Amino acid sequence: MSVQKGYLNLVFGQYNGKTVLKKSSYKAPLQIVRPFELECGTLSLTLLNMTAGIMQGDTLELDIMLEEGAKVVILTQTANKIHSMQGGFATQNMCITQAANSRLEYYPERNIPFVDADYRQKLRVNLASSAQFAYMEGLSAGRVLHGESWKFKRYSSQVDLFLDQELVYLERQDIMPQVYPVATLGIMEDAQYLLSGCVIGSVGALELEYTPHIHVGKTHHQHVWIRGMSKGNLELDSEARGLQNKIRKMLWNCSELRVRR
User: Fold this and answer.
1) What are phi and psi of 219, to 5 degrees?
2) What's the angle, vertex CA 33, arms to CA 82 and CA 61, rounded to 5?
3) 17, 52, 119, 250: which has the fewest C-beta neighbours closer than 10 Å?
């Protein structure tokens, strides 16, 4: 199968008081679904990968910009299937820039690394001091129902968030189950699904309670961090959706985010 070198460039702004997609360009396998406005005025957009998933050698570059006052929620259509690789790896680099009073919610579907997959992704977000950013992303141990738990080569994820040029949130995951077994006591144990995320910006008095599988807290800068793990995917997904909707309601008075696939 041929190597894909895809890119996606999006610019959101305001027109007549509404958020609009002002510019867009992309190259396969990346594509978008035409955005639409939610009841709360937020513009919703879904990212697509037009192939069967991520293959060895694939390189994806995403550059997203929100101009002043833009309000956007970005979803992905399906789980990110990362296929088996022999001696190589695949990468995704995403850069987000947000101007004053903008808000971006980014809720991609779960990453699923297959046997011998090697996937490395980076997310960098540059926020103006009055901008807000919310993010949640999940990871599966593999194709669990096929008995392929923790059999991938490597899953590396780096998240760096800057608020007014100051680093306020840093997250690193570098999981290599074939080098160090993670399904052991005190590490993953019997957990098959992970979740991580954050809410950055002016969160005010936002207080979120723990759920059975998700813990939340605040950083030194009073931003919200989110961590979850579970043996099953359904309960973790349900709790994550509930947490997303609670954040949206408490901070921005937005209604429930309904996702149909």
Assistant:
1) -80, 180
2) 45
3) 17
Question: Which residues on neighbouring strands pair with residue 108, listed in sequence order?
Answer: none
pLDDT tens-place string over residues 151-190: 999 999 999 999 999 999 999 999 999 999 898 878 898 9
255 pLDDT more than 60: yes
CA distance 44 to 25: 17
**For residue 114, what are its two tokens?**
């297959």
Tokens of 118: 């090697």
**Does the pTM exceed 0.70?**
yes
Closest CA to 35 of 54, 48, 51, 53: 48
The DSSP 8-state label assigned to residue 54 in this structure reads B
Q: Where are the beta strands (DSSP E) in 17-107?
A: 18-27, 30-37, 43-49, 59-66, 71-76, 80-82, 90-98, 103-107
Amino acid (one-letter) located at 260: R
